[in-house]
Amino acid sequence: MKKFLSLFAFALLFAACSSDDDNETPTAPQNPSDRIVYVANEGGFNQGNAGLTVYNATEGEVLQNVYESVNEEPLGDTFQSISFHNGELYMVVNNSEKIEVCDPFTFERKRTIEGLTSPRYMLFLSDEKAYVSDLFAEGVHIVNPATGTYSGLISTGTWLENMILHNGEVWATNAGGESLYFINPDTDLTGDPLTLSAGPNTLAADANGDVWVLCQGDFAEVYPSLYRVNGDTKAVDASWDFGEVMGYGGTLRMGPGGQHFYYLLAGDVYKMDIAATELPTAPFIAGGSRNFYGFHINGNETFNFEAGINPGFVAWSE
C-alpha cells in the first residue's frame, strides 16, 4: 500500500506498492467528536479501484475502502479530491465523471452530482452554488450542492484546475497553460487573465492578502516558478525561477496564520516565509527514497498509517 504520514503538522503521501488483500471492513458510524482523517486513493487509472481510507486519530483505527463497504458498490475510477460543506462529504471522482455526496461519519451515499466530464476540484460559493473545475470541459461547471443538480458551464476556452475565493472573486489556475483566471461568482463572468508561466498549479492567499502561485513547468523545457500576486491590483509583485531541477513543481499550501507556506518540488517539501526575498536552499522535509505525491497541513499530531492505491489528496473532518 501507499503510506500516509503526518509529520510536524503535515500529512504527506508517498508511493509504494499496494494490495487490497489486507483492507479492513469499516465499523461505521464514526463518532463526530473524534478527529478523523480522510484520504482519497486515486486507484489505477481506468481500473475502477478508487477508494476512501479513513483514519480515526482519536481511536487509532484505520478503515479501508469505506465507501464501497458501506454502500456495497465501487466508488469509481480516479478519486481526485475531497471537500466538506454543510456537514456533508463531497468526493470528486475524476474518471467516473461524478461527485458522490456522503455522510462524513456513516459514509452512506446521499446523492450523486453528474453532468461533468472530468471533474477535479470543488469551490463552494453558497449553500446552493459551487464551482467544479474540469480537465476536459474548457471551463468551470456550476452545480447546486444541496440538490445535486447541474446548472451550467462558465466557458473559459481552457482547463482550469485549483480555485480559491479571494476578495469577492474566484481565482483559478490554468494548469494546462500559463495564466491565472478571475471569475465574478455573482455574474459568472470572467475578467482578463494574468499571464504567469507554464503550468500554474496550486495557489493560496497569505496574511497580507497576497496570493502565491506555484507553476509546475511544462515537463519539457520550462521549469517551475513561484509568483506572488498582489491581492488587490492582481499584478505580479515578485517571482522566482527554480531553474533546472530533477522534477517539477507540485502542491503549495499556506501555513497556519498565513505567515509562511510550503511547497512540493522534486520530491522534497520546502518552507518559505512570505517576507522572504530568496528561495529556501534546503528542504524542510527531504523526500529521500520516498516519492512524495501530495500533502496537507493541520494540527501537530505525528502518526502514520497505510492508505490505499495511489493516495493523492487528504482532508480532516470539519
General description of the model:
The relative contact order is 0.18. The protein has 1 helix and 28 strands. It is an all-beta fold and 318 residues long. Strands 14, 15, 16, 17 and 18 form a 5-stranded antiparallel sheet that branches. Strands 26-2-1-27 form a 4-stranded antiparallel sheet, with no helix packed on it. Helices cover 2% and strands 47% of the residues. The protein has one helix spanning 66-71; strands at 3-7, 10-14, 36-41, 51-56, 61-63, 79-85, 88-93, 98-102, 109-113, 119-126, 129-134, 139-144, 149-155, 163-166, 169-173, 179-184, 189-190, 194-195, 200-205, 211-215, 225-229, 236-241, 249-254, 260-265, 268-273, 292-297, 303-306, 311-316. It has one domain (3-316): 7 Propeller (Methylamine Dehydrogenase, Chain H), CATH 2.130.10.10.
